[in-house]
Write a structure and sequence with these properties.
Keywords: Kinase, Transferase. Pfam families: dNK. Its EC number is 2.7.1.113. Residues 7-206 form the Deoxynucleoside kinase domain. This protein is of the alpha/beta class. It has one domain: P-loop containing nucleotide triphosphate hydrolases (Rossmann fold), CATH 3.40.50.300. α3 packs parallel to α5 (102-116) and α4 (91-99) crosses α7 (152-172). It has a five-stranded parallel beta sheet, sandwiched between helices. It has eight helices and five strands. 29% of the residues are buried. The model has no long low-confidence stretch (mean pLDDT 96). It is globular. The structure holds adenosine-5'-triphosphate and 2'-deoxy-guanosine (GNG). Residues 11, 13-19, 86, 138, 141-142, 187-190 line the site of adenosine-5'-triphosphate (ATP).
């Protein structure tokens, strides 16, 4: 790779993005950028009433991620330093297109493009796919109180939206390498060999 890689880990809720990004950051001694969850004032309200709170929530995520990406560009990308993030800013659009309706969705889409179109995109995306049962079990096990409201229907839709979004990214950003990880079969937490295989693949891509 001609420049230091910008790596993002992606996948639906509970896929293991933060876990994998943290493990890889340790393995490769990379700085890790994690999305803000606990300080988010709207998540609780959103899961109780999506129609009422989706615009506030999506705008909050977008502004936070915009700021984090701006900082990432200044601190790492412009200095040719590698970095790994537990999300791609594109996830704003994956969620926003699903949770918003009508003119709010149109406005949000426009703001998303104005803010992000000229910003650097990851060179490598590690996309963790997993089925509904696996994700629901992990969300339950993690036990965030506000996520108790997440319905299987919302999650199933999100799984499909992620697959569509990754397929569309592959076409629109052909320079981005997307590595798909089967999160049902590959257990990078419990199985050292599985983690070693992911690390080896990433090492090759980073050369
Ligand atoms: N491969 C795995 N095997 C078993 N448990 C896992 C695995 N990956 C993640 N977990 C567990 O599942 C839960 C969700 O993982 P994590 O928080 O990394 O997901 P995430 O994709 O970052 O979630 P979110 O979308 O909410 O940010 C955690 O409790 C984590 O310990
Ligand atoms: N609606 C919506 N839009 C987003 O951009 C977004 N990003 C993350 N999340 C939810 C998933 C987890 O519950 C929790 C932590 O990832 O926040 C989002 N929800």
């Amino acid at each position: 790779m001609k420049h230091a890689p910008f790596i993002a880990v992606e996948g639906p809720i509970g896929a293991g993005k933060t876990t994998l990004a943290t493990m890889l950051a340790e393995e490769f001694q990379l700085p890790v950028i994690k999305e803000i969850v606990e300080e988010n004032p709207y998540l609780d309200k959103f899961y109780q009433n999506m129609d009422d709170w989706s615009f506030q929530l999506e705008m909050f995520f977008l502004c936070n991620r915009y700021k984090q990406l701006e900082d990432t560009v200044n601190e790492y990308i412009n200095k040719d330093k590698p970095v790994i993030s537990d999300y791609h800013i594109y996830k704003n659009l994956i969620f926003g297109e699903r949770t918003l309706k009508g003119t709010k969705r149109d406005k949000y889409r426009e703001i998303y493009h104005v803010l992000t179109d000229d910003l650097p995109k990851p060179d490598i995306i590690l996309y963790i796919r997993a089925d509904l049962d696996t994700l629901m079990a992990r969300i339950a096990k993690r036990g965030r109180p506000f996520e108790e409201e997440i319905s299987p229907a919302y999650m199933q839709q999100l799984i499909e939206d992620y697959d569509d979004a990754m397929a569309s990214l592959a076409v629109r950003e052909p320079s981005t390498v997307i590595v798909t990880i089967d999160g049902n079969q590959i257990d990078f937490v419990e199985n050292k060999e599985d983690f070693a295989a992911i690390s080896a693949q990433l090492k090759e891509l980073m050369k």
